[in-house]
Amino acid sequence: MTSTEMKKKLEKIFDHYGELNQLNKLKEEDTELKAELAKYNGLEEIRVETFSEMADKLVVLSQFALKYPIIYEIMEQKVDRQIKRMEEEK
User: Fold this and answer.
1) What's the domain count of the chain?
2) Cα-Cα-Cα-Cα dihedral of 45, 47, 52, 58, to 10°?
3) Which of 14, 26, 40, 81 has a CB 3.0–4.6 Å from the CB of 63, allowing a cystine?
């Protein structure tokens, strides 16, 4: 996912602001991404601004995933489940 240096930076941010603040930040970033995604009708290419909002949300989500490794475990289960569903579609 991320380099060791990036992990250290993400952990530093999380530790500085704390869990509650970062939960609120996640809500804020989620709202901003939803607003950006609402601009699409499915015909145009993804805009740089949309990638930026995705990155903002991913930065905060990554902080939680580093703090709580169970998130990665759950992700792996969900990915494996989806791969199985895809194989069953064949």
Assistant:
1) 1
2) -20
3) 14
